[in-house]
Amino acid sequence: MHCPFCRHSDSRVIDSRTADDGMSIRRRRQCPECGKRFTTTETASLTVIKRSGVVEPFSREKVMDGVRKACQGRPVTEADLALLAQRVEESLRLTGVAQFETNDIGVAILPHLRSLDEVAYLRFASVYQAFDSLDDFEEAVRELRATRAGAAAAGAAATDPASAADK
Known about the structure:
It is a single chain. The chain has a three-stranded antiparallel β-sheet with strand order 1-2-3, with no helix packed on it. Strands 5-4-6 form a three-stranded mixed β-sheet. The N and C termini lie far apart (62 Å). α1 (60-70) packs across α2, α2 packs across α3 and α3 (102-116) packs antiparallel against α4 (118-128). By secondary structure, the chain is of the alpha+beta class. The protein contains six helices and six strands; from the N terminus they run βββββααβαααα.
């Protein structure tokens, strides 16, 4: 790490701690040449292998752009998209892998988009799960309905003490 003051090619780490976001490390450094202190932030970089073989850094903005197309005409805000992109990045980081293919990222988006908007989820899933026929759409809709019915039943049981006592 070059000193930002005198451009000396070395520095000494004085203190390290996890940054507030939990995804990076904040380091206090001191230059042995000029003695000045400065702060650096280190993050593990995620890279994406595109279909063409080109490798590029992961971008939340590209996740948002892809999902934005599926959400056209739906009641989804930019804040919703930003939060979804953040959650996708966090779930990718939790895998411990640093390099992903574009299809892996598309698949990682699906569960987050499903909870955000079911219609946008179906639009997006039709591409990333390679729907070939109406049967594929019907199966996806059946799964969504079953999940919704299961969530409604669980919510009703949680709010009705009599039904909880019966179990």
